[in-house]
Amino acid sequence: MKGIFISFEGPDGAGKTTQIKLLKDYLEKKGYEVLVTREPGGTNISEQIRSIILNKNNIEMNNITEAMLYAASRAQHVSELIKPSLEKGKIIISDRFVDSSIVYQGIGRNLGIDFVKSINDMAIQGIMPQITFLLKISPNEGLKRRFSSDECNRLDMEKVEFHNKVYEGYLELESLYPERIVGIDASRSIEKVHEEIIKIVEKKIYNV
């Protein structure tokens, strides 16, 4: 792959959207072609699946159904958008990727990491981010930010115990994949977080 794949992970409310925009603007000013996308979503079909997954009315959704819908959305996302864009040499910045499924469904829903990885293996076609920024903020603080924005979805409505479990899952992944996952203290100012992200991305770009 000619391009660079960067993903952002962390609790909702950690500031992913803000930091992704700042990084995109920075890289474009440097002359790079940057494509921002999100999961679930990123393509027409994937966005339709997203609307089903996150619909607050779908409270009866089975946990396995949820995991498979995420994998289906991801399969379309990778084949239609991410893989072709990387082959063209673009920088892809994705708001979430497969790590989200591992922690939310594998750990949060108790489906198991191995199960979630197995149903996503075909979906990702061997493509993983070179850098994953884990924006670290307490689940309680993240939820406060989310509810104040009026953007809460079906997963946001889960009990705080679920979100704590997901956060612990993220910390576990950070320890398992230190060469890829970079933990960032997201409780600091937007500027400080952005500065740290830039330093890491520049080092990766120049080493590619």
The SSE string, one letter per element, is EHEHHEHHEHHEH
| Radius of gyration over all CA atoms, rounded | 16 Å
What class do helices, strands and sheet pairing give? Answer: alpha/beta
Please, what is the CATH homologous superfamily?
Answer: P-loop containing nucleotide triphosphate hydrolases
- State the oligomer: single chain
Order of adjacent strands in the largest pleated sheet: 2-3-1-4-5
Strand content: 5-15%
Largest sheet: 5 strands, parallel
Could you characterize the architecture of this molecule?
The protein is an alpha/beta fold and 208 residues long. The chain has one domain (4-207): P-loop containing nucleotide triphosphate hydrolases (Rossmann fold), CATH 3.40.50. It contains eight helices and five strands; from the N terminus they run E-H-E-H-H-E-H-H-E-H-H-E-H. It has helices at residues 16-29, 44-54, 63-87, 98-108, 113-124, 139-149, 160-176, 190-207; strands at residues 4-9, 34-38, 91-95, 131-136, 181-185. Helix 2 runs antiparallel to helix 3 (63-87), helix 3 (63-87) runs parallel beside helix 5 (113-124) and helix 4 packs antiparallel against helix 5. The model has no long low-confidence stretch (mean pLDDT 93). Phosphorylation of dTMP to form dTDP in both de novo and salvage pathways of dTTP synthesis. Residues 8-197 form the Thymidylate kinase-like domain. It is an enzyme of class 2 (transferase). One of its GO terms (biological process) is dTDP biosynthetic process.
